[in-house]
């Protein structure tokens, strides 16, 4: 297949592009390489897939020197005309939309970035898919849409009408927008609610990255909610395997969707959780980092941050029943693999 992957300079997008290319798909990647975090890391991800320094130029198509089926274009999702031209020219079979303004805490500081990228950018993706006969749009949602839901595990059948951050609100909006296009235009769409993704080439604003950097520099780490946090940490390879299976599986209409808002009786629409379903105490997560670094962290215990939630745990029964897949990488092994990459990238 020919697949458009948005956000291939990003963490999950980089890994997904590699997975699709290695199985033989043709991939076109786009990313605007914004400065939300260190752009050097984004360019190095691209370099690792054979995309050279020309990727810094806007709208210049760069062919990979490593994968014959890979091309990259630096582009803004908000550039409606350029995006539509790309779709008309390439005639994509499938689209996996991962590009977005990420981060719960940053949404408190710069809310407009989330509207511009996550709302305006997403409507442009939907319109481009609609007008160019894309067979299936898979897109990143987030476990953040569950807000302060306390019933565990968190299920796609649960109500998600009360987000507690603007980031979560934009992701819930994406699900609503996708359903509208599935209903009105028959565009098959599948949303992916990711649960705390971590692993090699990860994002510097995520806890694992922040903790590792601080510990190695003998600086204290900020431990929110006084350490009373539980997260469904999910290794990036597990996430990507789930995404690929979703891309391949077109959603269908369901005759009775009255009890499950993750499907629709009027549209080819579906939402999945992708998580490890094995929640871990934050202090145990920190313990795994300390163990593999051979160094104890200095801990600065702090209250829960606005927009954050104390507990996440994913119900992945749909993923198992429909796609015969369940993420399974243990946190200890995932942390070990991340630290191996981190030391090789930043230290060696």
What is the 3D shape?
globular
How far is the first residue's CA from the last residue's CA? 38 Å
For the secondary structure, the number of strands is 14
Number of helices, where a helix is a run of at least 4 consecutive DSSP H or I residues: 11
Cα-based radius of gyration, to the nearest Å: 19 Å
- Main sheet strand line-up: 3-4-2-1-5-6-7-12
Order of secondary-structure elements: EHEHEEHEHHEHEEHEEEHEEHEHH
Biggest sheet overview: 8 strands, mixed
Into which percentage range does the β-strand content fall? 15-25%
Task: Describe the fold and architecture.
By secondary structure, the protein is α/β, with parallel strands linked by helices. The chain has helices at 11-22, 39-48, 80-90, 106-109, 111-131, 166-185, 207-216, 236-248, 282-293, 317-323, 331-346; strands at 2-6, 26-31, 61-63, 70-74, 94-97, 136-140, 189-194, 197-198, 221-223, 230-231, 234-235, 269-274, 280-281, 299-301. The strands form four sheets. An eight-stranded mixed β-sheet has the order 3-4-2-1-5-6-7-12, with helices on both faces. Strands 8-11 form a two-stranded parallel ribbon. A hairpin with a 6-residue loop joins strand 3 and strand 4. Helix 5 (111-131) packs parallel to helix 6 and helix 9 (282-293) crosses helix 11.
């Amino acid at each position: 297949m020919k697949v458009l992957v948005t956000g291939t300079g990003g963490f999950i997008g980089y890994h997904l592009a590699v997975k699709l290319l290695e199985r033989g798909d043709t991939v076109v990647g786009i990313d605007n390489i914004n400065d939300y975090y260190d752009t050097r890391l984004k360019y190095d991800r691209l370099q690792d897939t054979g995309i050279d320094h020309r990727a810094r130029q806007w709208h210049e198509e760069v062919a990979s020197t490593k994968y014959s089926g890979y091309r990259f274009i630096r582009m803004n999702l908000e550039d409606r005309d350029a995006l539509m031209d790309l779709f008309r020219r390439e005639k994509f079979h499938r689209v996996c939309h991962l590009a977005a303004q990420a981060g719960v805490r940053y949404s408190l500081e710069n809310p407009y970035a989330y509207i511009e990228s996550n709302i305006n950018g997403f409507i442009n993706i939907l319109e481009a898919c609609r007008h160019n006969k894309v067979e299936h749009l898979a897109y990143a949602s987030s476990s953040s849409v569950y807000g302060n839901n306390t019933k565990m595990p968190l299920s796609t059948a649960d109500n998600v009408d009360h987000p507690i951050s603007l980031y979560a609100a934009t992701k819930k909006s994406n699900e609503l927008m996708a359903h509208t296009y599935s209903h009105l235009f028959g565009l098959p769409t599948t949303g992916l609610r990711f649960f705390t993704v971590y692993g090699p080439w990860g994002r510097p604003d995520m806890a694992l990255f922040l903790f590792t950097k601080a510990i190695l520099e003998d600086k204290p780490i900020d431990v929110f909610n006084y350490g009373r946090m539980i997260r469904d940490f999910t290794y990036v390879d597990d996430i990507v395997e789930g995404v690929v299976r979703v891309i391949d599986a077109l959603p269908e209409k369901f005759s009775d969707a009255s009890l499950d808002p993750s499907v629709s009786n009027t549209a080819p629409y579906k939402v999945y959780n992708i998580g490890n379903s094995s929640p871990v105490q934050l202090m145990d997560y920190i313990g795994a980092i300390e163990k593999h670094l051979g160094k104890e962290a200095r801990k600065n215990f702090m209250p829960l941050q606005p927009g954050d939630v104390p507990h996440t745990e994913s119900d992945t029964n749909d993923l198992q029943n429909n796609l015969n897949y369940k993420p399974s990488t243990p946190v200890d092994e995932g942390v070990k693999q991340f630290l191996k990459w981190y030391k090789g990238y930043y230290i060696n």
